[in-house]
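Milestone M4 deliverable, item 7.
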Amino acid sequence: MRITEIRELAVPLSGNVANALVDFSAHTVSLVAVVSDVIRNGTPVTGVAFNSIGRFAQSGILGDRMIPRVLAAAPDTLVDEAGRLDPARILACLLRDEKPGGHGDRAAAAAAVELACWDLLAKLDDEPAHRTIARHVDHRPADAAVPVYAAGGYYYPGDHGDHVAALRAELTGYLRLGYDAVKIKIGGASEDTDLARLDAAVDVLGDGTRVAVDANGRFDRDTALNWAQRLGPYRLRWFEEPGDPLDFDVTAALAATYPGPVATGENLFSAADVVNLMRYGGMRADVDIVQMDAGLSYGLTEYLRMLRIIEEHGHHRRQAFPHGGHLINLHIAMGLGLGGCESYPGVFAPFGGYSPGCVLADGMIRPSDAPGFGLEEKPELRDWLRRLMGD
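Output delivered:
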């Protein structure tokens, strides 16, 4: 088996939402296809993936450096002993001659290709990706649903209406869809406004343990600790990314004083970063939440290294809730037995949220039986996939 072609397309996100620091209206995502020489029904079997949501497309890195390396490699260097495509060997090829460190867009670029290889492997076996992933790590294939929460409560630039009423309506809609937990943003408005929004969220959900808040790295140490005092009585699901993701002093200070779970990790792009989080971030085993995202950190191969590191430091993989509310991370959470996943219902199209074949009820979600990650089942993605493949 060999790879005959790798294609990439920069796809814009639709919608106009923001968190405390970032307006997502100009963001793009790299949609990637890895085409094999295996022909079924007259068509090459092709793996499809993307680099996750919340950064930008990496067209230059992929087109100028990474894709040419893979296409120029001897085919037998990219497969395992059984002749099957090996995502770890693909990743090593993508990173040939790259110096250690400097994780960032390079990590997300490599992830898009590496994850597309997992989609390809699952399609070759005619099974959902979570089963392929589970078998790879000798984990019992997961066929049950996994916990999911709705990540919403964003700010809408230019909207000067009743923010609290709009948030109530949004969260009530999530409950009707079958979610039973939510996450909302803080730090992008005045403290009084954000607390009013939080009060509304807790009122709609009925319990603070069903509501998480996310500051997206906005706060300095003193502001984060002040917020921790304000949030303590709510007994929230978790307090996410209070400060800069690499300022482990902020995370450690919060973990030392805040009684509830602290969540972080979505902007850590390598196993080395996770080692430093475990060493210096004050993360509490059986309490705090880690949110690394394979789509932003070199793919599933590196994500598995990250999981091993947190487990070596006494954390259970059920404390892992990957960032990125989309189909790829649903399959990863299911295949690896993680704590659950998030969802972006109604935002970050065409990538956010799940396909119509996914079953959502009582805060649990199960993917369809479509082979691979099932991206072809997302109606919003179909036109983009056709453009990617030139059909």
